[in-house]
């Protein structure tokens, strides 16, 4: 099982939340496949699936969403692979972004 959990900051406007929600949902419907959001919390998004197609879909969505304009609104973003591997997309992004900006 592959899973990613995105938790947005709570201090964003309803309009911004609507824009971000659409962007997130759209990015998990990509050329690698489609994964639905399994969360009912409007500030949290849980995308999960089995197999190589889910892995590719999630990774492509992560790649497309990790931009400063989006990341500024994210409070927590985790990647979980079968509960054995776990990591923070934010930590990885910050390490990469700092290297690129030098």
Structure, explained:
The protein has 102 residues and is of the alpha+beta class. The chain has a single domain (2-101), classed as Alpha-Beta Plaits (2-Layer Sandwich). Helices cover 45% and strands 28% of the residues. Strands 4-1-5-6 form a four-stranded antiparallel β-sheet. Strands 2-3 form a two-stranded antiparallel sheet. The termini are far apart. The model has no long low-confidence stretch (mean pLDDT 89).
Concise overview:
The protein is of the alpha+beta class and 102 residues long. The chain has helices at 14-27, 51-65, 68-71, 89-101, and strands at residues 2-8, 29-30, 33-34, 44-49, 74-81, 85-88.
Write the layout of secondary structure elements.
Elements: E1 2-8, H1 14-27, E2 29-30, E3 33-34, E4 44-49, H2 51-65, H3 68-71, E5 74-81, E6 85-88, H4 89-101
Antiparallel strand pairs: 1-4, 1-5, 2-3, 5-6
């Amino acid at each position: 099982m592959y899973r990613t959990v995105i938790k947005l900051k709570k201090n964003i406007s309803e309009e911004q939340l609507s824009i971000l929600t659409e962007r997130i949902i759209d990015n998990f419907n990509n050329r690698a496949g489609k994964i639905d959001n399994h969360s009912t919390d409007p500030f949290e998004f849980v995308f999960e699936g089995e197999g190589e197609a889910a892995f590719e879909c999630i990774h492509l969505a992560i790649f497309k969403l990790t931009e400063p304009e989006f990341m500024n609104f994210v409070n927590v973003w985790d990647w979980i692979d079968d509960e054995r591997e776990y990591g923070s997309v934010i930590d990885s992004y910050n390490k990469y972004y700092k290297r690129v900006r030098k």
